[in-house]
Amino acid sequence: MKLTFHGGAKMVTGANYLLEIGSPSTSSGTTRILIDCGLHQGSNFCERHNWEPFAYDPKEISAVFITHAHIDHIGRLPKLVKDGFRGKIYSTLPTRDFGEILLLDSDHILEQEAHHFKKPILFNEGDIRNLMPLWQGVEYHEPVTVGPFTATFYNAGHILGSSFIEVKVKSEKGQEEKIIFSGDLGNAPAPIIGSWEIYEGGATYCLTESVYGDRIHENLPERKEILEDLIEDTVKRRGVLMIPAFAMERTQELIFEINDLMENGRIPRVPVFLDSPLAIKVTEVYRKYDRYFAHTGSEGRGDIGHLFKFPNLKMTFTTEESKSVNDVPPPKVIIAGSGMSHGGRIIHHERRYLQDPNSTLLVVGYQVAGSLGRQILDGVRSVKILGEAVPVKCRVKAIGGYSAHADQAQLLRWLTPMRHTLKKAFIVQGEEGPSSALAQKMIDELAVEAVIPNLGEEVVL
Question: What is the model's pTM?
Answer without folding.
Answer: 0.84
